[in-house]
Amino acid sequence: MSAHTPVCELLGIEHPIVCAPLAADPRLPAAVSNAGALGTTELWWMDDAGAVVRETAALTDRPFGGNFALNSDQRRRVDQALSAGLRIVSLFEGDPQGYVEVVHDAGGLVMHTVSSAEEARRAVGCGVDVIVAQGWEAGGHVPGRVATLPLVPAVVDAVAPIPVIAAGGIGDARGVVAVLALGAQAAWLGTRFLLANEMPIHEEYRRLLVDAAETDAEWYANLYEVGWPDSQSVALAKRSQPVQPLRPLWSHCRSQRSQTCGD
Questions:
Q1: Most CB atoms within 10 A, among 48, 122, 182, 213?
Q2: d(CA 64, CA 43)
Q3: Structural domains of the chain in order of their starting residue, each with its CATH number
């Protein structure tokens, strides 16, 4: 089985690996892109998305992506990022309709994350170039309830020949090979890349990730209830602390602080 797939050609990468947007820090996405995969950076909550794009471009001459959550209007940030040279735009949690044309006009590509075959068909109908099929094993924001194994082939069949990238529960080469066998053309990994040297996380958080068992991830209906109501998420439960008393503190900024400060 060849590891160089058509979506690699489309995205300008050597390996069928995409690093999920884990922070608005240029070091990790640049390192991933320099290694021949596709790094992506968070841009949806930045005051100046263009500045992050420029900082990342200063560290790599390879393609990288920028991610935007469509639970709020992202047109200003998308315009900033495109003006700074971003050409791979990743969207999730919303309708991509109002963003595809402006990205295409700038010569860019649009990836959109979905959690069902019907959602994938709607996205392709809007002109999206690449579908990311996210199973509910994924970490972070997970709006769907379909597992990766049944979701990926359903989405592949629904939108062929549009390329599909599989996300959710993929942590090593075995997982990558598995989703390629399901018809995906690349794998989207997040939690695994939290352990990269370039990821600015606290050593306590790193230790918890390394020591975690397969049963330690927990699904929460509204983990980020401050500033992001009704956001379904999967997170690592800290065994020594109950999660419930911490939930009122978990805005997006609190989540970032827990990663970097070990709270």
A1: 182
A2: 12
A3: 6-195 (3.20.20.70), 203-261 (no CATH)
